[in-house]
Automatic annotation (TrEMBL):
Disordered: region residues: 142-210
Protein name from the UniProt record: Two-component response regulator ARR8
Gene3D superfamilies: 3.40.50.2300
Protein function: Functions as a response regulator involved in His-to-Asp phosphorelay signal transduction system. Phosphorylation of the Asp residue in the receiver domain activates the ability of the protein to promote the transcription of target genes. Type-A response regulators seem to act as negative regulators of the cytokinin signaling.
All copies of domain Response regulatory, residue ranges: 10-142
Organism per entry: Anthurium amnicola
InterPro entries the UniProt entry points to: ARR-like, CheY-like_superfamily, Sig_transdc_resp-reg_receiver
Family, as annotated: Belongs to the ARR family. Type-A subfamily.
Length: 210
């Protein structure tokens, strides 16, 4: 892929080692990616807009951020939240699950690699990361963008349901008004009975003369 096309892609790099962060940043920029680096999994989630008190929803700042994250590349061994934990959080969050995640590690542990790939990681790179590894990122980014475009938009309330709700409200108001009229009629009858006047004589009587 041409560098001019890759320059629009934004990669979030996560590593607690300053040296490794600088290395991955340099390699990504050499490959013409836009790069943001953070030193922990919790900061990565915060950048993505996911917080501990809202485990499955994004904040408004993330929904409105100008730069879209197209791929996350993270170290596996980090204090607190590991790269595997970060991977699981991303894949469990509906708005983030289509973001490709790549894991890096200096330890070649087959069971660890298999677990990450089964959880949804696109690649597992062994450190030190090489420039040739960066060339393998673009296809994963394109696949992730394709999945995001295929996601259906949020469902809206159908118009007929809204019309039914309006009709129900109108009927409720009409019923209330009718009950009010009946109450006034009953009140007049009770008043006439209390005064010893038959209810049918509460209306004025007229005498017709020749």
């Amino acid at each position: 892929m041409a560098f001019t096309a890759q320059a629009q892609f934004h990669v979030l790099a996560v590593d607690d080692s300053l040296i490794d962060r600088k290395l991955i940043e340099r390699l990504l920029k050499t490959s013409s990616y836009h790069v943001t680096t953070v030193d922990s999994g919790s900061k990565a989630l915060e950048f993505l807009g996911l917080h501990d008190d809202q485990p499955n929803s994004l904040s408004d700042s993330a929904c409105n951020q100008e730069i879209e994250v197209n791929l996350v590349i993270t170290d596996y061994c980090m204090p607190g939240m590991t790269g595997y934990d970060l991977l699981k959080k991303i894949k469990e969050t509906s708005p983030l699950k289509n973001i490709p995640v790549v894991i890096m590690s200096s330890e070649n542990v087959p069971s660890r690699i298999s677990r990450c790939l089964e959880e949804g990681a696109e690649e597992f790179f062994l450190k030190p990361v090489q420039l040739s590894d960066m060339e393998r990122l673009a296809p994963h980014i394109m696949k992730g963008k394709s999945k995001q475009q295929q996601q259906p938009p949020p469902q809206q309330q159908p118009p007929e349901h809204q019309q039914n709700s309006h009709n129900d409200n109108t009927a409720a108001i009409s019923t209330h008004n009718n009950s009010g009229g009946n109450s006034n009629s009953n009140s007049n009858k009770r008043k006439a009975m209390d005064e010893g006047i038959p209810a049918e004589r509460t209306r004025p009587r007229y005498t017709v003369t020749a």
